[in-house]
Design a protein that fits this description.
- This protein has one domain (17-96).
- Helices cover 46% and strands 6% of the residues.
- The protein is globular.
- It has 3 helices and 3 strands, in the order H-E-H-H-E-E.
- Helix 1 (18-38) packs antiparallel against helix 2 and helix 2 runs antiparallel to helix 3.
- It has helices at 18-38, 48-59, 61-74; strands at residues 44-45, 84-85, 92-93.
Amino acid sequence: MKSKPREVIRFNPEEASELKFVATGLIRLYQEFVSSQDGPTCNFHPTCSRFGMACIQEYGVLRGILLTADRLLRCNGSQAQHYHKDGVTGKYIDPVSDYATLK
């Protein structure tokens, strides 16, 4: 099965604090060294790590970390009834844009 190209999450240092830089850097380290060894195991699209990076960029470090922690707690098969499933990938769709009311 051909995988979709990854959505690129741009990092703009002019809009970022040091804390945001560290938080997204830690997620990038996880993606590069841990997730690459595990393979595609996340139940969601976007993956939890990409969701976390996007939330931190969009909502700031504190709210981004809280949303990411919530997402990680939901990343299991028992939450299936709450999400639409992508017919191609079989992943549950939970975009960052669904949390826009939190701004």
